[in-house]
Write a structure and sequence with these properties.
Oligomer: heterodimer
Helix content of chain B: 55-70%
Order of helices and strands of chain B: HHHHHH
Number of domains of chain A: 1
Largest interface: A-B, 17 and 14 residues
Largest sheet of chain A: none
Helix content of chain A: over 70%
Shape of chain B: elongated
Shape of chain A: rod-shaped
Distance between the termini of chain A: 44 Å
Structural class of chain A: mainly alpha
Chain lengths: 112, 138
């Protein structure tokens, strides 16, 4: 493997981390701001404002879910890639080992 | 004779892409992750910019771009439905919700299919979207 793919994965990892942080920031903002807005609109008895606040909360929730889904997908893809690389390595090693064992067995059989 | 006929039909040389079967194992091995990431919304750019010569990544990035454009078109369509049919008291809201759910599931399924195929190192066209992607000059 060359250096360039590793750098790319580093970029993707950073992107996933930034997206996760962004998602939780959006979530925190929604959790802090929306209940206050809803409570105020209920106390004022303003139905239109209440609906606006509910829409605000729902759109924030959607942004949170979308960001988290993309970040988690990147991490899953990178994990699968890493797993594939390692399993290919292990498979190669096992094949070599098996060949060595076969050669040894052949030698022993010839000697006997 | 066939060559002569073809030359008569196409007086100017037709640009042809190398067949996808010719993609090397090395290209697949190095570009698998980038190809899979290309199906996430907007991330096809990483594949196109980072590995412009890798045909495997380019194939999936092109499909990712078409999927992204289709998602954007779907969102516009939903907004239009919300603005027109959505004004009908019950039916409009239900229609909008069903349309949104159906489109969301459809695009999610297409993205997951593409990711799975990219991770397993295959160059499989997503139905309909793959044909559009093949005609794109990216």
């Amino acid at each position: 493997m060359s250096m360039i793919p590793e750098k790319r994965f580093w970029l993707l990892r950073r992107l996933a981390k930034a997206m996760t942080i962004g998602a939780w920031l959006v979530f925190a903002l929604i959790v802090v701001v929306t209940p206050v807005g809803i409570a105020r609109s209920v106390m004022n008895g303003d139905k239109l404002e209440l609906i606006e606040w509910l829409k605000y909360g729902a759109s924030g929730g959607l942004i949170f879910v979308n960001l988290l889904w993309i970040a988690q997908s990147i991490q899953v893809i990178l994990a699968i890639e890493e797993n594939t690389k390692q399993s290919t390595y292990v498979l190669e090693k096992l094949t070599t080992l098996m060949q060595q064992v076969r050669d040894r067995v052949g030698e022993v059989v010839e000697r006997e | 004779m066939l060559d002569g006929l073809r030359a008569a039909c196409y007086p100017s040389p037709v640009a042809t892409r190398p067949p996808y079967e010719a993609i090397s194992e090395r290209e697949i091995a190095t570009g698998r992750a980038l190809a899979a990431v290309a199906y996430l919304p907007g991330l096809f750019l990483i594949g196109l910019l980072d590995a412009p010569r890798n045909r495997f990544v380019r194939f999936h990035a092109r499909q990712g771009l078409v999927l992204f454009l289709a998602e954007a078109a779907g969102m516009v369509a939903v907004a239009i439905v919300d603005g027109s049919l959505g004004r009908i008291p019950v039916l409009g809201v239900v229609t909008g919700a069903v349309l949104r759910l159906a489109l969301g599931l459809l695009f999610l399924a297409a993205a997951l299919y593409g990711i799975a195929k990219a991770l397993s190192g295959e160059t499989v066209r997503i139905p309909y979207l793959g044909d559009v992607a093949d005609r794109m000059e990216v």
